[in-house]
Amino acid sequence: MTTIGLSGQSPMLKDIKSKLNNKQERPNILIITVDNVGYGDFSVYNKQSTIITPNIEKLAEQGARLTNFYTAGATCTVSRACLLTGRIARRHQLVNQLGGLKGNYGIGLRQSEVIIPRMLETSDANYAKGAFGKWNVGFAPGSRPIDRGFDEYLGIASGNADHFTHVYAGKHDLHHNNEPINRHGEYSTDLFANAAMDFMEENTEKGKPWMVYLPFDAPHHPGDRNIDPDAENIWQAPDYAFKPYGVSPDTKDAKTRFNAVVTAIDMAIGRVMDKLEELGIADNTFVFFYSDNGAFYPYLDIQSNAPFKGAGVTLWEGGIRVPALAKWPGNIPEGSVVDTRLWSLDIYPTVAKLAGAQLPQDRFIDGENILPNLTGQNKYSPHATLFFEYKNFSALHWGDWKIIREGADEDWQLYNLKSDQAESQNKAAQEPKIVDKLAAAFQLKQEEIDSYLEIEDSFQKQN
């Protein structure tokens, strides 16, 4: 293990700082998300998992496995908006899932929000910026990826289109840049990964650093209204993904089909990692991978959030504590485990640090640069508390404790996550002072955000 000298900086940290001060050595940045894969679905977190994911296992071996990482949004739309802005949902104000054509093709995330590619424009390294996959934060003019700073986009505007036809509510939902396209029959996971690899290769050959946002829409299954009228709505996987399980693609077993969907993602990630090696840029690419939310169907024994309680679209640990991996050869120690409490808002300022970009000065960014945590230089969380809201749910983490309630008129429940990560023993009655302390912190955070929003617009108008 690297040791910290009297100067307070390890040789590794000094080397990282030297790299980040040299625009010629700015790393490529790859952010990969999967859609509603549970903590217990991956073998790197749950040895009982039956899902075959050798490339995810390899990614964990080559980098860091984060065991205490949270998504800041409890549903797909909110999770993506939080990642792209580095801001708590109450602050960026996209607090609910976008639904239907009206929602997905509306403004969605406020157009005044500065998302990652716009922030990267302040870097002197001239990053190429591509997005390939599920957008789900608004597709009106001014809200589309190309309108918001990405140089290239290929993906679906909505959240749960058919993986093979790319239809959402009777509309072709697949777009290249701002134009609708028809790639009927191509499996979305492969379509997005291939487009991302083409973008990486093209810009590497040009000698440009790049940032790629690769949000897979799988394994989230398509909504019933997005499936052809005569088709059965089952977990959709390509035929080749069933071979590792030795079963026919015609199998009706829901668990096997779900496993195949995740294995198809794993295979795509393996091809992306191989492309980095082929291009000779693997050592200079920062990779961050996580699930946007917890699994939706642990109760049906199809998915797993083990060892946590609850499911997606809740604020129980199973809904928001998600698998996450980070790799940056020579900087993030291989096979390391980061058990520091971090969350998806931290990706935004971390990308800014990697790219030498400036954070927006006219708004509050809730995330923090977590490179010191990922590289092993700092074991402490940059966050005193984590604050969550979604619909009727509210929650706050502080130290080993968490309060949660399922309605504003309900009493707070209290759990010690160090001794009870399954949230099975409500300690509210035994520890009323701790409940009061965390509840006061929750209320103060609400008030702070609301007060700041009243003046934030005036800051932005001055710039």
List the main descriptive attributes of the protein structure presented here.
463 residues; 16% strand; 12 helices; disordered N terminus; four-stranded antiparallel β-sheet; 29% helix; alpha/beta
Structure description:
By secondary structure, this protein is of the alpha/beta class. Helix content is about 30%, strand content about 15%. It has twelve helices and 18 strands. The chain has helices at about 10-20, 55-60, 75-85, 90, 100-105, 115-120, 190-205, 255-280, 315-320, 345-355, 370-375, 430-460; strands at about 30-35, 65, 70, 130-135, 150-155, 165-170, 170, 175, 180, 210-215, 285-290, 325, 335-340, 340-345, 385-390, 395-400, 400-405, 415.
Question: Nutshell version of this structure?
Answer:
The chain is an alpha/beta fold and 463 residues long. Helices cover 29% and strands 16% of the residues.
Overall mean pLDDT: 94
Oligomerization category of the chains in this entry: single chain
Order of helices and strands: HEHEEHHHHEEEEEEHEHEHEEEHHEEEEH
Characterize the biggest β-sheet. 10 strands, mixed
Could you tell me how far the N terminus lies from the C terminus, measured between alpha carbons in angstroms? 45 Å
Q: Give the spatial strand order of the biggest sheet.
A: 9-8-5-4-10-1-11-12-2-13
Radius of gyration in whole Å, from Cα?
Answer: 21 Å
Poorly predicted spans: 1-11
Number of strands: 18
Number of helices: 12
Structural class: alpha/beta
Shape: globular
Strand content: 15-25%
| Amount of helix | 25-40%
